[in-house]
Amino acid sequence: MSALIVSSPIAMARDTKHMLPLASAMQSADFKTKLDPSIQLYFGNQKHGQVTKQLLEGVVTNKKTNAVGKTDEAACQWALLSALISLQDRAKKEGGNAIVNIHSYYKKNEVNSPSEFECHAGGIMAGVALKGDIVKLK
User: Fewer CB within 10 Å, N- or C-terminus of the chain?
Assistant: First the structure.
């Protein structure tokens, strides 16, 4: 009696970390038409108006998007847009008019930058996690 042993290497899913520019994403037509201009967004330590009321601190959103057939950058921008819309929806619900101190929070790793966001992309999914404070500005 003989036994056949088949071995196959375990395929590791791709998880490429990208630090991408916020400016190019925020200038795209999708961002300009889908984000609510009445809820201001301030990344990292960007200057903003006087906070009159701190509503919620450390609000986290974690969004994924289908990356099939997209470049990593395009998929990451879609995930970023989804995360920002989620933060804006929460701000509206809480009565805020801004989200300040927005920073990347992928796998609870904080990257605080006014010019870049962190995204992880694989063969089928891309994801962005953000953390920020919902406030009412003067």
Answer: N
